[in-house]
Amino acid sequence: MKPLTCLSLLALLCGAAPQSVRFYVIRQWKYVNFTWPDEDTLKTATAKGTYIPENNVIAGVKYFEDHFYITLPRMKGGVPATLTRIKAGPAHDASPNLEPFPSWAMNSVDDCNNLQNVQNVEIDARGQIWIIDGGRTETLMTPVVKCAPKLLIYDIKAERVTTVHNFPEEVASKNGSFLYDIVVDHTDGGYAYITDNSARDPGIIVYSVKENRSWKIRNAKTMMADPSATQFAVNGITISAPINIAGIALGPEIRTSNDRVVVNEDREVYFCPLSSQHLYSVNTTVLRDENRARAAPDYDNSIKDIGLKPSQTVGMVMDNQGILYYGLLGNSAVGRWDSRTPFSSGQRLIARDLKYLEWPNSFTFDPTGNLTVLTNSLAKFIFGKMNLDEYNFRLITSYVGGKSYLYDDNFNYDLHGGHSSPREPTSPEPQPRPEPTSDGHHDHDTTSERTGDDSVKITQSSGCVLLTSLVTLILSIFVVLA
Q1: Which residues contact 474 (CB under 8 A, 6 or more apart)?
Q2: Which of 196, 460, 197 is nearest to 307 (CA)?
Q3: Could you read off the pLDDT of 116-159 as tens digits, one per residue?
Q4: Which tens digit of pLDDT belongs to each residue from 217-271?
Q5: How many whole angstroms separate alpha carbon 149 and alpha carbon 258?
């Protein structure tokens, strides 16, 4: 009999019915390189230390019109571009060079109007890419503090910047903030909700497009690290640090009421600190109340504790049906929860693999129902243990049938709020097939240790140690009874 992983065995013992979700590798890199203007430019960058391969880490991914937009935060020196893109779809080269976006010039650190340090982006239905730029660079070394943090909105189709908002010091400190992730809400002219992962002043930053103003929501109980969850292990590397709010997801824009499709302006924003196993939510009506934010309330009665996850999370995304997908760092796994079901019993583990799902950091949907997960071995990167002779960064994809929370098949965006119509698939998409690696071989199913769509066992353990002990105890009882 083939051995079962600890989580799958527990699920099967509890009577869960597994439903396989197959992920495939579509891109992978040992280290990243770029589409340099010419060979001499590459040689010069390498010689001057403006390009140091081992200092480049892929952190965020978003899909839009046949491209993946990929971020590389400047945590260390030698990162020549912080926002890039590659072609999506079938490719002969599974490890393509990254094209700086919008241009090489816009990625230059010499001018604070350019992109300095981009952790994540969002792309709306109109083709606007919302870019959060932390300003500070080399944040894992001796930080270079030259530029203020800002939000930049760039129209991909028109190829121009439409909005730049420099955050006030009281909202995002030039010397201390860390803009981590972003979701976009098109209500009343448009809002961005941004997590500030700051060690000293964490919170959710709100930006109003119409008012061109920003403010911050703070709540120590839910946005700061949980002291009981600051230590966990990822493939033998121990993370021990109080890391504050990071991941964020927004509920669907459209809901159905009495068989009518209506715009949902009363939505939930889901978030969690990295050093926590709790998932929290706050309503967008609370976030959009600027006067309340400036009165500095504690928000204890406005934020919901949704429940416990089996491990720490950094990346998450919600689809347009209210299904949340999220990484489970200590389990090297991806979880799934339908927000219409109780969190305590409704969570599912859809993929687990110690090799291919090492640190699932970012998620994105394409318009045809594929979910793509970026994994980046970040623990190895932080502690200088990344081996450039093995694959460290991967994009893995599975057909799950959902679309981004920004899209809805039954809603005409052109007639409501100026939204553009989402791209419709002409026919159901098959599951993506594995693509050739650079050495001509094929990667196989990345869920070789997957548990299927099994119920997740909720424990306070950061990994699988307590689950393994419980399984051993159960098996011992079975043996005795036999």
Answers
A1: 13
A2: 460
A3: 999 999 999 999 999 999 999 999 999 999 999 999 999 999 99
A4: 999 999 999 999 999 999 999 999 999 999 999 998 766 666 665 566 789 999 9
A5: 44
